[in-house]
Specification:
The chain has about 260 residues and is an alpha/beta fold. The chain is built from nine helices and five strands; from the N terminus they run βαβαβαβαβααααα.
């Protein structure tokens, strides 16, 4: 029976025997980045891992062999740089990484790579997209997933805060993930004292705000994180992983 495999747990002989045509390598990505005073810096890292694992378990039923590669814990994260602990990469560094990674996978005859980045910063997505276009010259099919952005729109139906369309960075949805999967990492004493922040993060960034502070988030969160529940977290990430699965199915149907 097919099961989710982890590339770092295989021997080179096991990796060599894999059916490369039916195998799909998942690359979870997410920056080390501030997520409010109530969540740890690794929200996007663990969010990527949870989503990829859930999607991988579902994609098996479609007849594919999912293989999860080790997580890339750094991306372009310029907007959060005012906050201690955040690490950002330049677009050039990000492109070099994706190119070299793809070249290596292609060398070993893997045919399909899915990049899922749990980070909604538009310049980051564009940099990955540009890198993917260049890296495909190595002979590997690469999907730069946009499920995160579709998930933000779908989450509106699940968020309990007053203005669900404004829930964003370190808000109810991401806090709910941690309430569900990593409750011991949530600073609940701080969380319960947080007031709602309905500054329109996405609009403010699109209008020229250069970071989270300028966009109206002096504590690096947007929305109503105090309303987060484990139940909401499960629903949000079931939806997100379903979107990723459908995206992968469409991708594989056209490659």
């Amino acid at each position: 029976m097919t099961q989710v495999l982890y590339l770092d747990e295989l021997t080179y002989l096991e990796a060599k025997k894999l059916n490369k045509k039916e195998s799909i390598i998942f690359l979870p990505m997410g920056p080390l980045e501030s997520h409010g005073p109530h969540l740890p810096l690794g929200v996007d890292i663990r969010g990527a891992e949870v989503t990829c694992k859930m999607a991988a378990e579902k994609i098996i039923k479609k007849g594919f062999q999912p293989i999860i590669a080790p997580t890339m814990p750094y991306t372009l994260a310029d907007v959060a740089m005012p906050f201690s602990g955040t690490v950002t990469l330049s677009p050039k560094t990000l492109k070099y990484f994706i190119n070299d990674l793809s070249k290596s996978f292609a060398y070993h005859e893997f045919e399909n790579l899915v990049i899922f980045c749990h980070h909604g910063e538009i310049p980051n997505f564009k940099a990955i997209n540009e890198a993917v276009k260049e890296a495909q010259k190595h002979g590997i099919n690469i999907l730069n997933s946009s499920a995160m952005f579709e998930g933000m729109r779908e989450n509106v139906k699940l968020i309990k805060g007053k203005y669900p369309e404004l829930d964003a960075h370190a808000g109810e949805a991401e806090t709910a993930l941690y309430m569900w999967k990593f409750p011991n990492l949530v600073k609940k004493d701080i969380l319960n004292g947080l007031i709602d922040n309905w500054s329109p993060l996405r609009n403010n960034l699109a209008s020229g705000a250069k970071d989270l502070v300028e966009a109206g988030g002096p504590q690096a969160y947007f929305g109503s994180p105090a309303k987060a529940t484990a139940e909401t977290g499960k629903y949000v990430y079931e939806t997100l992983s379903d979107l990723l699965v459908q995206e992968i199915k469409n991708f594989m149907d056209t490659t």
